[in-house]
Structures are given as C-alpha cells and as structure tokens.
Amino acid sequence: MTKNTGRVLSLLAVLVIALGCSYDDSGLWKEVDKIKTELKQLRDQITSAQTVVDALSKGNVITGVTPLPDNEGWRITLSGNAQPIEIRNGKPAEVNIAKEGDRFYWVLIQPDGTQVFLTDKEGNKIPVTGNDGAPGATGEKGEPGAPGEKGEPGAPGEKGEPGAPGEKGEPGAPGEKGEPGAPGHSPSIAIDSDGFWTVDGERLKDPDGKEVKAQGDSFFKDVRVDKRKGVVVFTLAGGESFTLPIAGATHLHINEPKGAPYHSFEYGEKTRSIKLDAEGIQDLTIAKQPDGWTVRIGQNFPLAIEVTPPASGSYCSGGIIVVEGVDADGKLYRASTDVRVADFTDPRGVFVVVEGNMTDSNGMLMYYDGEGREYRHIFRNANPGKTIGNVVQDMFIYKDKVYLITQNGTRKDLGGEGRLVICDLKTMKMLSKDALDIPITDPKANGAHAWPQHLIVTSPTQIFIQYGSSDYERTGGMREITLADDKVTKISEDIEGTYGLWTKENAIKARMILSKGKIYFAHGHGVSILDPTTSKVIKTVKMEGRQCKDVVKGANGNLFAFFAGTFTGNMQWGAQFTSNPLIVELDKEGNIIDQAEAPAQITLPIATWSPNIGACASFTDPYLYFRGTSDFNSYTAARYNYEADTFDSQYIITPYVNYGYMGVDKYTGKLWIGTSKDYTTSTVFNYTVGDQPAPVGEFFYGSREGASPAGVDFYYRFTNEWINK
Known about the structure:
- 39% of the residues are buried.
- The chain is mostly beta strands.
C-alpha cells in the first residue's frame, strides 16, 4: 500500500470538474477516504511500535494475542498498558526502528536497504521511546584554593638577626557553582496532513535532500507467536529480533483499573491496595515509584501493593510504579502501572468540553495534565452515577471552582444534573446544580425557554450567560445570574440591548471574553462591551450587514472580531456574497485599531445553524485560527497573522468535520482541534504550528458520550495574568 497523498489532490481536481455534470463521484470519495485511512493506520503503527519497545524496556508481558481479520496482523494487550495495540503485517515503512546497544532508535531505510540513523539538530540519534529529559545536573561547587605557601625567612640585616619568616597565605576562594544543564529533548516523529514524515514538525529529508513520503504498512518485517516457548517474536525491518513473554504459569502482573489506563486517587486519599499476581515469582521489590508516594509489597493474602499518595503537594502528582522479581531460574520479571492523583489545578492543564450525542447521550469533560497524560470522564469519575447533562456547551474557571453549562441538562430521560453545574476544581466533585429553567418573555416565543450556551463568571455571586431559544434558536440574548453559597438566587430579565433575532440582533452563540474587568461579546452585526459592575452594555461597534462570528483576545492584549461578508439572497440557502470577510482589531475601549479583509478563498458562514467559527488566538504569537469556510461541514482550519497581515485559507486539513472551539496551548505550542465523525464519535488532534503544520497526537472518544467536542480550553485562559493582559 503506497500512501501517496498526491492521489488525493488529483482525485479532488477530477471531482471539481465533475461537479458541473451528472456524475457518480462516490468511487472517488471512497478512494480519498481509503488514503486517509491508510495514513491513520500508519500513524497508529508509530504508537504501537513505541508501546512494544517501551514494554520491552520495562519488562512487561503480553497478556493477550488475537489475530486481526484476513491475517493482517495481531491485536496485542500488554501488562501495564490498558489500551490494546495492533501490529500489522506488510511492507516495512521507510522510516523504521533499529537497535544499537540497549536502545532502539529511528532510522531511514534507503532504496538499497541500508539504514541511516535519524538525528536531531545537534546530531544525536532519536530514541523510539523516552520523554523529554530532566534538566542537566547543576555543576558541583569548586574546591577551595590551596593555602598560600609560607614565606621564606628574611635575609639577615647588617650584623643583625635574620628577618622573621613570611606569614602563611590565605586559602583561595571556593570555585563558583555551575549553572544547571539545559533540559533534554526527545524529538517527535510524525506524519503530517499531506502524508510526509516529520521530525518535530519539520519534514524529513533523505540524503538527496528530498522530502520523504509516508509509505509502507508496518515497522516490523514479521511478528510470530511461539506457543512452545510462550513468547511473541518481533522481527524488525533490518532483521533483528526480540521477544516478549506471554503471561503463563510464571508471571508478574499488577491489576489494571477498569475503564481507565491508570489508577486514579482522590486528593487526600489514604492507602489503597492494588492486587498483584506473582505466580512463580520470588524476591519481590519496588524498583520505581513516583516522588512523594509510598509503595510497599503487602504482607497479607491476596498479594497486593500498598499505595499511598502524597499527603499534600502539587497538581496531578503521579507516575509509574515498577515491581521486580525473579523466578526459580533467576530470570527477571517486571510489572508496572500508572498512578495519579485527580487534581485539576495544573497551570498547564487542558480541558475538552464534549457535548455528547444530542439524541441519546449526555456529554462529558476530559482533561490533560502538563505531562500530556489523559484523564477521562473526570466529572463522572468524581461523582459516581452522575453525568453533567445533555449538550455540554462551555466551562469557566473562577478561583477554586469550575462552572459548567449544558443546553439540555434537565432532560429526565437522560438524567443529567442540570444546566448549571458547579464543581470543586481540585477534585471535580459537584458542589451545586440548577435547572436554570428560564422562560422567554417575548410574546412571539410561544412558550420557548432559554438554552444556555456560554458563560462568564466575574465573582462568587455573579455569572453572565449567553443563550439561544429552544424554538430552534430563533432568538437569543444574555442574562445575569446571582448566586449565594453557589446556589442560584436570582435570574435577571434580558440585559438591555442583548436580546433579538438569531445572528442579527442577539448576543450570539459564541464564547465571551473577560478582559480587564469588562466582557466583550459577539452581538448580531457588531461586537459589544458589557460592564459587570452595572450589568449594562456600554458600547457596541457595528458593522452593518455583516454578522459577527466570534471575538478572541490576541497575544498583544487587543480584541479581534470576525465579520462575515455582506450578501444578497436568503442567508440559509444560496446566498451570494458581495464582499469578503473582515477581521477587526479593537482596543479595550472598543476603538477600531485596524481591520483586514480576508481573501476570496475564505468565507464565513451566515446561516443560523453556524453562528460561530470556533476561533482562537495564540497566547504568545500573532496568530488567529478559525474555520474559514461557509460550508455546513468544514474540514479546514484557516490562519491569520495580524502582525504580517497574511492569511492561510487551508492551513490545516482535518480528516473529519472540524467541530467546536480550537485552542493553542501556551506551554507546548500545539494547536488542538476537535473533530466529529457522524456526530457519534470524536477525535481531538494536536498539530504543530510552524510553516508546515503536522499532526503530533490524537485522542479518540469512541462512545456516544464522546460525540461532538464543543471546545478545547486551557487553565491559563482563566488566570489573572491573562485576563488582565
């Protein structure tokens, strides 16, 4: 199978020509989907190869081996790794792995079959596994200088006595303490959206300087199960082989948690016993444990490890526990497991708000700590038997609490907690809930109620929500909610000037921005500023005839509002644009600083079902990201540089429909994009954001509860540092 993405472009060119006539294009799209699937499978093989090599270094064993359909390979489960991997048969990829010494490294296989080790910018070989290294050790303090030598006696004076000996010199000053070494780094190997191999986001080049396309099916020439010896034999492309034992009569295994790849401890939890299977093993020892944790081998039966998390400490404390033992022949066995404290106050934390399937499943909240570790279903895990609600829309962090808004949170058939749910940020335990049953007073509303969609929290007693009406979002507006001890005590009428027809006069369905004590929000054909101290709109900047699609805050502290082009005809179907979109830069007072006209390749939606464009801004660089098409389904992310005034209309092409708000991580620089497939499952992708963006990670939400990611968010967005910038 050759992954030649040039075929995609050729097929699409044919497709464009075919659109003007009656032509069955289903076969072309099937071929496009096939190529996308092949690239995804090869990306999956990168992870599988890393998992196998990591298991070998940790001494893990294989706990299950089943063949894939049509003899395509093997599905393998490993101790210490809750998620199964797939190893596929086939032609080895041109980027592969090879062993040197005790480590495995990435290599490039040349046309003549020779292997060349890939290296980073400093010329170091790139290991297959291993996180970024810790900072180098601080230089040792220098030794004191040697004492000065004792002076010689002075010469005798004329007929006098000899002079006194010279005094002993003082010791030399100690040497200065050395500076800490720079952090180590393991470059990331990936395949970009166009099907080329990349190293840390830059395309790999062969010895002739040509970029290397991703081809082949596997990193292994052969995978064979040897039942007699009880091992699986992995043969690399270069012919080297290694084995992993299959758990049998003699084995060492730590019990894995159900439904998660790690053991989650509550903050402040005491000692927990985790079952340990050690058939035929003796001399058990704890070889590794996370800093601050206490781990010991239990003395009772059934055998277990007794695990105690730190009594106090920093956010998301955790890591890997490794147990070692030997059998009667002296063969070493290892077992490992991941333990974590569920604490969500990491300044580098990333949240993903997920709607769920609107028809039959409530949504959820996902979390990723500063080490990139995934925490699934954090609300449900902290509140057993409970779910947030249906169509989870937005979140806001204020001090030590997180506030969640759902659109249909009170549906009795799904059992959600409410439209407003407040949780403790550290533990995610629910503190309060409210139905927010808000009838709309407009006489034309015909009994419609408010569907909350976005929120801003300005104090422990004040929340502002933007909503759409339940009559298919015909209208919308903004209301103020008053709290006392986290309980709703009052809901205001519509704030003057915020209520009106959807996408024309209302506070539209888009994230609001809290900055320097004011709230900025998209408002019909303009952008408005609200003063929370008076709960009044103090200014609206109008762009007549142009829908405001989103407002974001840039790294320079200014606001950027996106406006669709003017148009003629029906905005729902067949409208004709008469001008290009605008991006308008505003200062905190709402004064227009600059505006940029987007190129014709970029269009912003105007139909009522697409009120926002999922826009985000980098916290550190002059870039804005957004969906730059008016199509109902968008597979692209556009980018705008507001310093250079340059646009890239198809900066990233996603394999599935781009869904919800994007976000750029301040700490890693990665762009997070949520996508939805058939509105039943989702995948959130990570991309590098250089001149040639490349996918460097993905998270699959396979259940209907994981459908439709509403948006990516970052702890940093809610810090005083950012809000007051």
